[in-house]
Design goal:
By secondary structure, the protein is mostly helical. The protein contains seven helices and no strands. The chain has a domain at about 35-95: Fumarate Reductase Iron-sulfur Protein, Chain B, domain 2, CATH 1.10.1060. The protein has helices at about 5, 20-25, 35-40, 50-55, 60-70, 75-85, 90-95. Helix 3 (about 35-40) packs across helix 5 (about 60-70) and helix 5 (about 60-70) packs antiparallel against helix 6.
Length: about 100
């Protein structure tokens, strides 16, 4: 492939408008506010076998951080997540 063939419409810089970048790189679902987080935390069954923890690829103690959210200890919940996964912010984007 010659160098001129490598330059095509698909690889030119600046092909997206600024609005497209904002839409493409923003969160699909906005983060939960404090009240929404409390409501979601109340939905947890706190199962004995915690299948959510078993399914988590980083083995985060999910019931613990949900309890921390339910008791208004958001910093403790964040610490629980980040102690197990330095990229813990991705958890909210990947898991339900």
């Amino acid at each position: 492939m010659s160098q001129s063939d490598a330059k095509g419409a698909d690889i030119r810089p600046g092909r997206l408008r600024a609005e497209d970048y904002v839409r493409n790189f923003s969160d699909l679902h906005p983060p939960l506010n404090r009240h929404e987080a409390f409501v979601e935390a109340e939905r947890c069954y706190f199962c004995d076998d915690a299948p959510c923890t078993t399914a988590c690829p980083t083995s985060i103690d999910i019931p613990l951080f949900i309890r921390q959210i339910a008791t208004d200890r958001a910093e403790g919940a964040a610490r629980t997540i980040f102690d197990q996964n330095i990229l813990g912010g991705m958890c909210a984007r990947v898991c339900p």
